[in-house]
Amino acid sequence: MTHQARQVRPTTTTIPAALAEVALVDARTSAATGGMGISWWHARVAAGEAPRPVIQQPRMTRWRLADVRAFWAQRAQAGSADASRSDGKTGTSTNAG
Fold first, then answer.
1. Please, which pLDDT band fits residue 17 given cuts at 50, 70 and 90?
2. Could you tell me the strand order of the sheet in which 24-25 lies?
């Protein structure tokens, strides 16, 4: 009997654009898209900052992938706009008055 090597599945997959418009994702995927944790994601949803789920049932809450992507894109754009307005100073005063 020979030992067969286990097939490794890829950790990332690409979704066709047409499917991304209707695909539903869970909180873990929504948070991981932006590198955040699930509790952070739920806090943003509760605060009305992140998109509301389209399906909310016990043990099954789902968001549209397109809405999640738009949220993260807007957040990244806002972050880069804030960074470009910053002059690079840390806020500490070097005035030796």
1. confident
2. 24-25, 60-64, 55-57
